[in-house]
Design a protein that fits this description.
single chain, 297 residues, alpha+beta, 6-stranded mixed beta barrel, two-stranded antiparallel ribbon, 8 strands, disordered C terminus
Length: 297
Amino acid sequence: MERDGTPGLPDDVAHALAVPGARIPLPTVLVVGGPAGPTAVDAVGTADPGLVQPGEVVLSSPTAAALGLAGGAILDARFADGSVVPLRVARILPPDEQRGDLVVDRSQVRAHNPAALTRTAFLPAGAVPDPPPAGVTVRDAAAHAAAGYAVDARLTGLLATLLVAVSAGHGALAVAAGVVAATGTRRADLAVLVAAGATRARIVATVAVETGTAATLGIVLGLAVAVPPLAALASGLSTATGTAVAPVPDVGVTALAAGTCLLVAVLAGAVTAARAVRSSSSVPERRHRSGRAAHRY
């Protein structure tokens, strides 16, 4: 259950939702000492007496290691009102996003931070009141998580598409410049083909096929270079998360980028070859006309 048009859930609503199995965290910020000096850390107040009691604090193992604390140690924590309260480290537990990295008693958070408000209350499926209290909206956990994931996935997809578009654009410009330069250096070869009787269409088609073959080979080599790092990244994520992660390339975007570069390469080669053949054909014609003019003279 979440706030609906309000800054947060007040205490009376939190008490009304405090059913067995419910988690109603009260977030705050504490300033604690550590090896690197005073550090502001996010803390969570909870009303679960089985987890933490007043005057105690429960730390996750990474937080305890960062602060240099062990079980039974005393942590001097400065609350939002400036009060410094000594808290005994009751437990050091493995990391848990639902619990939090630093947990204190809810009553202590409220006593030293009257403005703290609960943003989200987590209730068992069968304990949701009907109707819910005023200013509270009910969200299914799975549907809410799926909706948030869909937004993240859409934004990530748009960013990836933008990066691919920019990369493909620069790649297409580089391919066009390279093809124009390479074809321009073959003017003498093209002039020989023209002198041997090759038609302009045949020469342009031959250059276009050569350019397309070279661009296709470059695309294949590019995919061969990109796929192994992508598979290695997926394998690393699988190891880090303990969940099978497989590479999921966007075939459509990849094909569009590769096709754009291929089309630009073929067009650049064909246009440059056509211009080179035209200029090679005009040279003998100009010489022939100059010879006839000299003969008449």
